[in-house]
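Following the same procedure, backbone shapes were mapped to integers, as reproduced here:
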Amino acid sequence: MAVLVLLAAAVPPALIAGDLTAGSAGSQALIVLSFGGVGLVVARRQPRNAVGWILLAFAVLLSVSNAAGSYGALI
């Protein structure tokens, strides 16, 4: 859920700054959603498996990085 909110929060500042291109935004969203989806499935089925949690953490950190970069481009 946090990943989707962060992906959505990164779009308006990127549009304002003119930093949003279809290729980069689509590929980053695809990476974040695929890592988050696989991590969610693994973490829910096997909560003690560290790989699922690592994938979820990567998805969240990448989406935080994307959102921060979009907001940083406005400055």
Notes: The mean pLDDT is 84.
